[in-house]
Design a protein that fits this description.
Elements: H1 3-11, H2 14-21, H3 25-33, H4 40-49, H5 56-59, H6 61-64
Length: 76
């Protein structure tokens, strides 16, 4: 399952995610279909509202780069 689909499911559906982000449902449908990318601003909001489920790196690697290999944790 795609990361944005996981967020949609966790939020309770397309309309619920749109309402939580104060955007219109067609925008979320466009993310799901791949017709449109999540804006960098909303990628930050989504990653903060659903921590552990998705990161900005998952949603916009073209802007924020790939996820750190160690998840941001350094080995002892």
């Amino acid at each position: 399952m795609d990361k944005i689909e996981q967020v949609i499911k966790e939020a309770g559906g397309v309309s619920a995610l749109a309402a939580a982000l104060n955007i219109k449902p067609p925008t979320v449908h466009q993310w799901k279909s791949g017709d449109r990318k999540v804006s960098p601003r909303l990628a930050l909001v989504i990653s903060q509202k659903w921590p552990g489920l998705v990161t900005v790196h998952d949603l916009r690697p073209d802007i924020f780069g790939p996820a750190p290999a160690d998840g941001g944790q350094e080995a002892a």
